[in-house]
Amino acid sequence: MADIYTQQWYEEVKNAINNKVAGMKKLPEGTWQIAIEIVGDGVSPYVLQGQERHFLASIDQGTCLWYKEIDDDTEQQDQKIKLDYRFRGNASKFDEIAAGIMDPIDAALGGEIKVKGDMRFLLRQADQVQALLEAYSNDVSTDWPKGKPPY
Amino acid sequence: MITQYDVIIIGAGHNGLTLGAYLARSGLSVVVLEARHEEGGGLSTEELTYPGFLHNVHANYHTFVDLAPPVSDLKIREHGVQYVKPEVQMASIYPDNTALVVYDDIEKTAASFARFSQKDAETFLRLYKEAHGYVDLLLGTLMFEPPMSVKELTKALSVFKVGNRSQFLSVKLRKETINQFLDEHFENSKIKAHLAFHGAVCGYGNNIEGLAIGFPLLVGKINNWHLSIGGSHRLAHALWRDLANHGGVLITDARVDGIVVENKKAVGVKLQDGTELKANKCVVSTVSVEQTFLEFIDRKKSDDDLLEPEFVNKVQNEILHQSWSLFSVHLAMSQAPNYIAAEFEPDVNKAWVVNLGYDSLEALNDDWDVIAKNGLPDPRPNVAVNSLYDPTDAPDGCYTGLIRQFAPYEIGSDGPAAWDEISGIYGQKCIDAWAKFAPNLKDEAILKWATYSPHDITAKLPNMVRGDWMMGQITLSNMLDQRPTSELGGYRTPIKDLYMAGSTQHPHGFITFGPAYNALSVIAEDLGIERWWREV
Fold this sequence. Notes:
- With 151 residues, chain A is α+β, with helices and mostly antiparallel strands.
- Chain A is built from 6 helices and 5 strands; from the N terminus they run αβββαβααβαα.
- Chain B has a domain at 4-44 and 64-79 and 230-320 and 470-527: FAD/NAD(P)-binding domain (3-Layer(bba) Sandwich), CATH 3.50.50.
- In chain B, strands 1, 2, 9, 10, 11, 12 and 18 form a 7-stranded mixed sheet that branches. A 7-stranded mixed sheet of chain B has the order 7-6-14-15-16-13-17, with helices on both faces. In chain B, strands 3-4 form a two-stranded antiparallel ribbon.
- Classes of the chains: A alpha+beta (151), B alpha/beta (536).
């Protein structure tokens, strides 16, 4: 079990997603470049208030090829990475999703996690997207007590 | 004179100008052709009564400000548009002179609802907060992307179990009317009438099956009504400025004779004065489907199989238009309305928009029935006094007033021309209906007034066929990728390099920018234009 946002934890996320995809009959189509922006909200100890942590990930046919933490958007722009989706929200909400106590669809529908990008693609592949979200929320272990972040 | 452009756009309403500006910013040479003497289409502001009184002849309510991407992409505000979001957005005054008020502040709105029903106030607040949460996500998906099919959307809603997550949004709404939605969730007839009227003003008839699916979104932006300082036409100017700043050309008084088609491809436009303009890449029509395919395409001269007979038949007979139109009275006034209902709710005198007289869904339904039979209902209009929030739209100490009344396009069996005879009489009735609630609006308070009938709408803007200010009825069968027909629902047409990008297309009329923005995506894909907009 890994503490959230550590290298080990991200490896587990990657493996969980890829294991889920390996079992799918129909794979999500295409390659997506995704940015995840976690905003410190004074609640989560993992991102201090006033600070942000930004991550990039590349998904191809549903499989996570790579991910990395970047210092800021400059690095992304320098490398001319064209994003398909951007997810942005308060750190405590991302923590709750990882803990399985907040549903990621609820978070997006409720506006707590802002999603930018072509939603039609995600809606058209709803079955596959749902499976990937379940892998993130339910199939990754943390060293938190079950059902809640450690704060 | 340059007669060759990359893109020729027919119609300089807000969609034609918006599309032109994006394409010009993308480096293409663009010309926008407008039959009238000025750009704007429905963004028309004129001194219909006296000089200094600025009347918005068509579009008055801007409800997509800061929701529609072009507002920021095209730097509308930097080009001179100033929007104000009135603190008291809207009110309904009922026959007993009680009143309900919608504020910019939604908690105050709920408090106003609570005077009629505490339970409904709580329901409204839950509905608003839920809908407001997903306005960004769903509005972006449903209005500012080329449309998905109802089937695809339904499946996605089902997979994501939206019905279980939401108290209000569910798949079953696609089979319900707004009336049914309101009856299911609300108890007070006045509150239901207010919400239904709000939907109708947005073009969503409360008794049309399937429109409940869009109703939560309407509620989610119920307090996002904006007024353009100095008149709605300012927005048209701003869009034109952006077009011109990037090398685009607007030609007014340019009446289209026909779209030139060679080898089944649109290659140019011929004007009635004989001018021929060549299009290197494409031609885009933002006017009506009927004008585009029945008037502008010379089917006799073109290839025999250019348009399938089935398609032509659809255009001739099956385009769905709103079954009701709007009759307007524009007023120059020396006083603002002082409502009797101010004794019950003082803030009604500060309301920008006021709905007069509907206290139940049945009352609204009764009027729809009258209108469906080409009859004139006793006026229960929607009125607006822009001067309460825009001191520039009338001389000092004066006010500009607007009355809007639901009305048929044709009157009885006498056709639309009968409006020319009856407009004055019906206009006076509308003013009397307003004065019944605001008795000061009589005699010297009304300096001058002018009517604008459904017949006038089509005479001035022929693309609004049969007084259809929405340029196509809003119904489930005329939504998303089926609007205005299955062949045209994706902004492409049966003729190569000819596109549709006006309010006939998804999402619909109103100042949404949606048809142009979505057509832009399709055209960009076809022409290989690199997108600088919609940065993720």
